[in-house]
Design brief:
About 30% of the residues lie in helices and about 5% in strands. By secondary structure, the chain is mostly helical. It has a two-stranded antiparallel ribbon with strand order 1-2.
Length: about 110
């Protein structure tokens, strides 16, 4: 993950151009992960050639939002980039956590005198 500090803007903008330049010493490798997309809406390289996909840029601003208010966002992001993507992954994770907690609790209670 790369964090780039930027100053806040007075309003939001759509259809903007973000230019990225990476200067390597020759022995490094950079991979940028994104999603495949149609050439008509694909990101463009410096020479104007359409790239195979797009990447997402998120604003991680400081704030006082609660964990519960971010639950939907976290659930959506857990489904991206996985073998079997989808928000149902969150349901599977929660079910596994509940099952492990139940089995652990039962074992602990059984061992108590």
């Amino acid at each position: 993950m790369l964090t780039i500090p930027v100053r806040p803007l007075a309003r939001s903008y759509a259809d903007v151009r973000v230019c990225v330049s990476i200067d390597l010493a020759g022995d490094e490798r950079v991979e940028i992960f994104g999603t495949h997309t149609k050439p008509s809406v694909a990101a463009l390289a410096g020479n104007g050639q359409a790239l195979k996909g797009r990447m997402q840029i998120e604003d991680m601003r400081p704030g006082s939002r609660t964990w519960w208010s971010l639950a939907a966002l976290v659930a959506r992001h857990m489904g991206f980039g996985n073998f079997a993507g989808g928000a149902w992954n969150v349901v599977l994770v929660l079910a596994l956590v509940v099952a492990i907690a139940a089995v652990s609790s039962r074992l602990i209670l059984r061992e108590l005198p």
